[in-house]
Amino acid sequence: MNSMQRLIASGRGEPLDCVPVSPGISTYCAVKAGQPMTRVAYDPELMADVILQSLDRHGHDSVGAISDYGVVTEAMGSRSVIRDWEQTYVDRFAVKSKADVAHLRLPDPLQDGRMPVIIECQKILVAKVGNSVSVGGSIPGPLSFAANLCGPQRILYDLVDDPEMVHDLLAISVEAVNSFALAQVDHGGVRSISIFDPMITMVSNRMADEFGFAYIQPLIKSIKERNVPILFHICGDTTRLLERMIEVGTDILSVDVEVDLAEAKEIISGRASLSGNVATQNLARLGPEEIYQESCRCIEKAALGGRFTLSASCEVPLETPPENIDAMVRAAREFGREFLEKSADREV
User: Fold this and answer.
1) Per residue in 121-150, pLDDT tens?
2) What is the per-residue pLDDT for 347?
3) Per-residue DSSP letters for 170-232?
4) DSSP three-state, residue 249
5) What digits encode the pLDDT tens for the residues 288-302?
6) Which end of the chain has fewer surrounding CB within 10 Å, N or C?
7) Distance between CA 217 and CA 3 in Å, rounded?
8) Spatial contact of 307 and 266, defined as CB atoms under 8 Å apart
9) What is the architecture, at CATH level 2, of domain 30-59+65-254?
10) ∠ at Cα 270 (177, 185), nearest 5°?
11) Which of 291, 272, 275, 294 is closest to 283 using CA atoms?
């Protein structure tokens, strides 16, 4: 069973040879390959090369282009800071007043900013790995995208002081991320789309419904018309939000370290797959044996009955020792196989 077959079987709840593993590797690839992000971010061939180096080293089950929250927003007037050996971030925002929202222009994913680099990298990855490894795409969720158009602090104030403006901003945000997602599927050839919306855990349940899930649901519906599965990740303790994350059409729920995997598995109750949640801070500071044991505990909590992928709780930190990613993969392959075999024997 190759990586692609393993992930497909896992999503369907079919028998597996071992537990799938998708650590959540992104900028880490460039750092470990010794390639500066100021080059990688603009060179699709170099980006694909560092990603494939990581795949060759670790042998995980999926890959994706190195993206960030500024890839699309910078094409609408925000500014991304790209530095060597650091995470990319947005430091200047396109929307400084309510009037600016009306002047925002929808970008073309095939022409504007770094989006064409991402899509070309995806094409290269698909051509290189074929049907052996899953190549996935990614987008920010609408609320987090909007926060990178006007600033995270400002949008939290505006949710209370000017909700109409936020709705206007979210309307164009969902169009922009939907366009980018469809371009990744149609032109990049990706087989899944991951949506990351960390801003949702910073607001109340009522606001999460009004400003988060109300826009996520039609977005997911649109992307799934391309017949690709959706992974949805919200940072922090999302236990209170898991039910809503399922209701909007998510296929794979990715959970942070604050969420108990066993409890999440019970809440999901077979309606979606689960992914998580080796602590990223541990990946950066602990040794491989400790990471192996933590990975095994995750498998014990969530792999029974399948539909579980071992992953980090969020993006793998840049300073993570490669041996720790090796330990995650080894746990999924070795302990994961033994765990699934014993579980199958007990069922018989």
Assistant:
1) 999 999 999 999 999 999 999 999 999 999
2) 60
3) HHHHHHHHHHHHHHIIIII--SEEEEE-GGGGGS-HHHIIIIIIHHHHHHHHHHHTTS--EEE
4) coil
5) 999 999 999 999 999
6) C
7) 29
8) no
9) Alpha-Beta Barrel (3.20)
10) 25
11) 291
Spatial distance between the Cα atoms of 224 and 138, rounded to a whole number of angstroms: 14
pLDDT value, residue 348: 47
Which pLDDT band holds residue 345 (cuts at 50, 70, 90)? low
The two structure tokens encoding residue 269: 């109750």
pLDDT digits (tens, 9 = 90+) for 207-216: 999 999 999 9
- Which amino acid is located at 52 in the chain? L
Asked if 277 contacts 259 with a C-beta cutoff of 8 angstroms, the reply is yes
**Mean pLDDT score across all residues of the chain:** 97
pTM of this structure: 0.97
Sign of the dihedral defined by the CA atoms of residues 265, 260, 139, 127, in that order = negative
Q: Taking a C-beta distance cutoff of 8 angstroms, is the pair 256, 278 a contact? A: no
Rounded to whole angstroms, how far apart are CA atoms 204 and 186?
Answer: 36
C-alpha span between 226 and 26 (Å, rounded) = 24
Token pair listed for 213: 């899930």
User: What residues does each domain of the chain span?
Assistant: 1-25+271-348, 30-59+65-254
